[in-house]
Specification:
52% of the residues lie in helices and 11% in strands. It is α/β, with parallel strands linked by helices. The protein is globular, with a radius of gyration of 18 Å. The protein starts with a strand and ends in a 9-residue tail after the last helix.
Length: 252
């Protein structure tokens, strides 16, 4: 059975000292890359874009379970990288914690002005956004990773080992999910969803000049109001098998 690296919350990452997870993962993958190349193993990556409350965490967990149970790329570990990726980038580059609040898919002018102020003596190209993009590319190239959000499908669009998914759902179902997870009232959940979706759309438009809802950015769009999160995870898993069929050479 695969050893799967589970998702962790921001609090867990902070308390357990796992903020280096992304870069430790990249380092460990590259350490064994030569051996893996010799074995001709394929290193896939899945990016997931999502509407707020569409169930990306549950879908990712079911996807990992499907990959494990069906022994897809069975000799390799998998990891999920979600909203905690920014904290990992900050920690790796020894950046002030204040940036963690600014880098929340919003306050774009604040981010730019603060970076300019903070790194006035640094090359113009040195920005937190670019460091995040570089980290996502490294994670994708290291392989066996599921990257949620942050324009992953756009950043890794030219990589042959990537599969791009978008999750959507109707507003009513998303409101219920957010109410359950965050203990919000119905109105609070609705306001939260609208704001988060708007922030994400602006983030993608600002830094990549793309429309996050453009279906051309994804291999598959799944509606978790029509199918369950379990079904969505399994459907993605089946697509992984079909799309990367010629690379799957190891099974138990």
């Amino acid at each position: 059975m695969n050893e799967v690296i589970k998702q962790t919350s921001s609090d867990e990452l902070l308390s357990s000292g796992k903020l280096h997870k992304a870069h430790l993962y990249i380092k460990s993958r590259h350490k064994n890359l030569t051996k893996e190349k010799k074995k001709k193993l394929f290193l896939p990556c899945i990016t997931i874009s999502r509407e707020t409350g569409a169930g990306s965490k549950d879908v990712s967990n079911y996807l990992l379970k499907y990959i494990e149970e069906n022994k897809i790329f069975s000799s390799q570990k998998w990891a999920v990288f979600d909203q905690n990726l920014i904290e990992k980038v900050l920690e790796h580059h020894n950046l002030p914690k204040r940036l963690a609040e600014l880098m929340s898919e919003k306050k774009h002018s604040d981010i730019k002005s603060y970076i300019t102020e903070l790194f006035s003596n640094q090359p113009a190209s040195w920005t937190l956004v670019q460091k995040t993009m570089a980290t996502i590319l490294q994670l994708a190239e290291a392989g066996n990773s599921i990257i949620i959000g942050r324009g992953g499908s756009i950043i890794t669009a030219n990589l042959k080992n990537t599969l791009h998914i978008r999750l959507v759902a109707n507003l009513q179902d998303r409101v219920k999910r957010i109410q359950s997870v965050l203990n919000f009232t119905r109105e609070e959940a609705k306001i939260y969803i609208i704001k988060k979706d708007s922030d994400r759309k602006k983030y993608i438009k600002t830094y990549f000049n793309k429309d996050i809802t453009d279906p051309q950015l994804y291999h598959l769009i799944l509606n978790t109001s029509i199918c369950t999160c379990k079904q969505a995870g399994e459907l993605i898993g089946k697509l992984v098998e079909i799309y990367f069929e010629k690379y799957i050479t190891q099974r138990a």
